[in-house]
Write a structure and sequence with these properties.
With 143 residues, the protein is mainly alpha-helical. The chain has one domain. It has seven helices and five strands; from the N terminus they run αβαββαβαααβα.
Length: 143
């Protein structure tokens, strides 16, 4: 199975440099829609319900301190992704790829998996509760 860094590297190879926020949200949506469409995650790593939306800590530590993340900043191996996984990511990029980071943040804040993981915390409160893959599958699978 590929990992989150493989997914992030694939996205960056397709999009070029993007903000750290945007990269996190694109990886989140790739994971969410993979689960919804195939009942299988793209990768094992989890996302947490941080104040600025879903964040995968394993990816965060790769780009920590960078506002803009370039393909060379991520050590992933896109060749680890199957053709079907690349198709899923490409579909996510076709839909969300042109969205601004703040729009992606607002979108994730309006959706049940992030809100449920935060248990009603104020938007500006710190939180590291995992957004479960089950909650992602149920929510996005019902759309």
């Amino acid at each position: 199975m590929a990992n989150v860094l493989d997914t992030a590297k694939y996205i960056l190879d397709k999009t070029g440099a993007v903000s750290a926020w945007k990269l996190q949200k694109l990886c989140y949506y790739a994971q969410a829609w993979s689960i919804a469409w195939t009942d299988e995650p793209l990768f094992e790593e989890d996302f947490e319900a941080w104040r600025n939306g879903p964040v995968c800590p394993a990816l965060f530590y790769q780009h920590r301190g960078k506002f803009t993340v370039k393909p060379e900043d991520i050590t992933g191996k896109p060749d680890e992704l199957t053709e079907d996984e690349r198709d899923t990511i490409d579909t996510v990029l076709a839909h969300y790829g042109t969205w601004e980071p703040y729009k992606l943040r607002e979108q994730t804040h309006s959706e049940e998996p992030w809100k449920k993981a935060r248990h009603g915390l104020p938007v500006d409160a710190s939180c590291n509760t995992v957004i479960t893959k089950d909650s992602m599958g149920v929510y996005y699978g019902a759309l």
